[in-house]
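So, can you check this one?
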Amino acid sequence: LIIQSYSAAGFRIRGADYAGGVLIAGGEVHPVKATSAGQLGYEHFKPLKGLAVTYLILGCGAKSSMPPLTMLRELKDRGIVVEAMSTAAA
């Protein structure tokens, strides 16, 4: 899946527009109901369950911000390393 464009409002992926954040995994696009990295929790990453994911690139908006440590620990405990950065860099 190729991200064709993005803005503060959302993403254009494969010709479809998605408002807000998205998780791309397993060949699918999953909308994420969070408006900042600080609002993320492990529940936002349930689509990763059962997938062979070891690395997650997390775009955090105009500039990089730190997601909650509890979420990072939960993902790490499941063998997933998170790299948080600006959305442009991601």
